[in-house]
Structures are given as C-alpha cells and as structure tokens.
UniProtKB/TrEMBL annotation:
<dbReference type="InterPro" id="IPR006619">
    <property type="entry name" value="PGRP_domain_met/bac"/>
</dbReference>
<dbReference type="GO" id="GO:0008745">
    <property type="term" value="F:N-acetylmuramoyl-L-alanine amidase activity"/>
</dbReference>
<dbReference type="Pfam" id="PF01510">
    <property type="entry name" value="Amidase_2"/>
</dbReference>
<feature type="domain" description="N-acetylmuramoyl-L-alanine amidase">
    <location>
        <begin position="2"/>
        <end position="132"/>
    </location>
</feature>
<comment type="similarity">
    <text>Belongs to the N-acetylmuramoyl-L-alanine amidase 2 family.</text>
</comment>
<protein>
    <submittedName>
        <fullName>Peptidoglycan recognition protein 5 isoform A</fullName>
    </submittedName>
</protein>
<dbReference type="InterPro" id="IPR036505">
    <property type="entry name" value="Amidase/PGRP_sf"/>
</dbReference>
<dbReference type="InterPro" id="IPR015510">
    <property type="entry name" value="PGRP"/>
</dbReference>
<dbReference type="InterPro" id="IPR002502">
    <property type="entry name" value="Amidase_domain"/>
</dbReference>
<dbReference type="GO" id="GO:0009253">
    <property type="term" value="P:peptidoglycan catabolic process"/>
</dbReference>
<dbReference type="GO" id="GO:0008270">
    <property type="term" value="F:zinc ion binding"/>
</dbReference>
<feature type="domain" description="Peptidoglycan recognition protein family">
    <location>
        <begin position="15"/>
        <end position="126"/>
    </location>
</feature>
Length: 149
C-alpha cells in the first residue's frame, strides 16, 4: 500500500526525476560529497535536496551523495527531501507520497541511504513547523510502508 489504487502495480525501482540541469537549478555554492550513506532522511516542505511535486515528479536538488544545506548540524549525515506546498493547510497527494517511497527505495538500493535509515520530519530535529502538520502526521504511516518493502 503506497498510495496507489489497489491492484495497480507500482515499480519501486522507478521514479520520474528531473535533473538539475533540466530545470535550470542554480549551482550550489559548495558541493561537498558525503562520506557515507545517509543515516537519516529529513522530510521538509521547502526547496532542498530533492523536491517532490504534487504530481509525483521528483526535481533533483543537490542530488544523492552531496551534502545539503537543509537542516543545520544534520546535513552531513542526512538527505533532505522536500514536498512542494504548504502542508499546514493542504494534504500531500498520494502521487507525491508514492514518489517519496520509491525515491527512498532507490536511494537504499544504490547505497546512498543506509537500509536502516530513520525517517524524520524537519521539526523533529529543529525548531520549525516544517514539513507542515498534515505531512508530518503521515510520517508514521510512511515509516510503516517503508518497513514492508
Ligand atoms: Zn524544513
């Protein structure tokens, strides 16, 4: 169960990613490579390492393996993934939630994220409302879904 309609086959190994160049992302000021796979995945609702749009398309931010600038003191061992929108007001789409699960599956598969990574919301590690009430309240369910894969 990952947000898709029952019976629909979901290819966990594929997710639509738009690379930085394709969406004309401005180059980050520094590009530090991570020394080991990320142990934490921090969910946001602002523009960071990866952005997930409401239609489930992933926009590459820094990309895998590159230290981001999304959560002070956690950047060196975590990946930041942001959902486009303000989830204090709106609910994240099932497409975007499914894209997150597939992205994480791929991240683990390719060794960018530790298999036993911890999924947290930005507010778990900093004083912020990010990633919004509605998205944050879905994290336990997402953790459960990740365990079943
Ligand atoms: Zn955040």
């Amino acid at each position: 169960m990952d947000g898709h309609t029952p019976g629909e086959t979901v290819d966990m190994n594929s997710v639509a990613v738009v690379c930085r160049r394709a969406w004309n992302a401005v180059d980050p000021r520094d590009r530090t490579e991570m020394k080991s796979p990320a142990q934490t995945v921090i969910v946001h609702h602002t523009a960071l390492r990866f952005l997930i749009s409401g239609d489930g398309v992933v926009y590459e931010g820094r990309g895998w393996g590159i230290v981001g600038a999304h959560a002070k003191e956690h950047n060196f061992h975590s990946v930041g993934i942001a959902f486009m929108g303000n989830f204090n007001d709106e609910l994240p789409s099932s497409e975007s939630l499914s894209a997150l699960l597939r992205l994480l599956h791929i991240g683990v598969l390719h060794g960018h994220v530790r298999p036993n990574f911890v999924l947290v919301g930005h507010r778990d590690v900093a004083k912020t409302a990010c990633p919004g009430e509605h998205l944050y309240s879905l994290l336990p369910k997402l953790r459960e879904q990740l365990q079943n894969h």
